[in-house]
């Protein structure tokens, strides 16, 4: 039996390389490729893939949100996240969104093909190093509001702009930033943003 695949990655070169590698396997065939997360569900409906390989960071909709949309709307298609960003927080979010597997892009081609087969068979596949990191780093210590504020502070926006964007007072924004800095063990908000991003909490 041939396993039908959908590839979603915003980098055409990476998508093409993945397609070429996977098509070399006699039991795998790529039936659709998209470059945006918000194109995933429509492509899955049209081509009925068995497994969708999704990048995390894509325009339109990220891979984790696309995985959740697939689970809700095309539940027969299983999801394998294949990403450059091997962050523990992303792993947890992806599994919570319904992904069956999570591997990084430097996984050897044979292991990637095996991961696809295992996901298709109903098994869960997770990069072992990432799974260990996930256990060590734990859940995000940030509240939803602290996460929103840190996200808005990514580009160094002043407190007044963050407050206006999130409909909060400047004092509330400062309090959330201070709490986030403390919880991430950072000294500045830039360090807090970096720490949260590195753990996949943003």
Blueprint (SSEs and pairs):
Layout: E1 3-8, H1 12-23, E2 28-34, H2 40-47, E3 51-54, H3 63-73, E4 78-83, H4 88-96, E5 101-104, H5 109-120, E6 125-126, H6 128-137, H7 144-152, H8 159-166, H9 170-184, H10 189-198
Parallel strand pairs: 1-2, 1-3, 3-4, 4-5, 5-6
Helix pairs in contact: 3-4, 4-6, 7-9, 8-9, 9-10
Walk me through this protein's architecture.
The structure is a single chain. This protein has 202 residues and is α/β, with parallel strands linked by helices. Helix content is 51%, strand content 14%. The protein contains 10 helices and 6 strands. It has helices at 12-23, 40-47, 63-73, 88-96, 109-120, 128-137, 144-152, 159-166, 170-184, 189-198; strands at residues 3-8, 28-34, 51-54, 78-83, 101-104, 125-126. Strands 2-1-3-4-5-6 form a 6-stranded parallel beta sheet, with helices on both faces. Helix 4 (88-96) crosses helix 6 and helix 7 crosses helix 9. The longest helix is centred in the C-terminal third of the chain and has 15 residues, at 170-184. The chain is elongated. The N and C termini lie far apart (40 Å). The mean pLDDT is 90.
Summarize the structure.
The protein has 202 residues and is an alpha/beta fold. Helices cover 51% and strands 14% of the residues. The relative contact order is 0.11.
Task: Name the features.
alpha/beta; 10 helices; 14% strand; 6-stranded parallel beta sheet; elongated; 202 residues
